[in-house]
Design brief:
mainly alpha
Length: 158
């Protein structure tokens, strides 16, 4: 089962998708988890999610963890499919709970109260590509399941 989750090709395109999505979500997750980059940190984010947005505490913790640990996992290519699934789930919930009422467009001119969901669609597309195809080249997943890993398993069982 684990092998099916981490199996990936040596595709450099997946590397690019994974690094872009991982960088963006690690930064957003670090805001929420650690208070980096001007964020509120874990306590502040939990307060906002649970008190102002009405998200149950266990789900709020999962959302913060999906962004922070999912972004980190994507950066190094470790359990990329699971990381992408967490981020994809976060984005679907964000669109349905918050952003769909504002339409697709971002609020570049400040003409509306909130932001549209264009960014979220792009993140979902990247996450879906990684979920379907794995972490790609230069990933821990590739090291675990690449040709050299298969050879090592074959030698060990012979």
């Amino acid at each position: 089962m684990l092998r099916r989750i981490v199996h990936t090709s040596n595709d450099p395109t997946l590397l690019v998708l994974r690094l872009v999505l991982g960088s963006v979500f690690f930064a957003h997750g670090a805001q929420k988890m650690l208070g980096w980059f001007g964020g509120d940190g874990f306590t502040g984010t939990m307060g906002f999610f649970t008190q102002q947005m009405g998200i149950p505490a266990p789900l709020a913790v999962l959302a913060i963890a999906a962004e922070f640990f999912g972004g980190l996992g994507l950066l190094v290519g470790c359990l990329g499919r699971i990381a992408a699934l967490g981020i994809l789930s976060n984005m679907v919930v964000a669109v349905l709970m918050v952003h769909r009422q504002y339409g697709i467009f971002m609020n570049w001119a400040g003409n509306q109260q909130g932001e549209g969901y264009a960014y979220h669609l792009l993140a979902m597309a990247l996450g879906l590509a990684i979920l379907m195809n794995g972490s790609g080249a230069f990933s821990i997943d590739r090291l675990l399941t690449g040709p050299s890993a298969s050879a090592a398993v074959h030698v060990a069982t012979a």
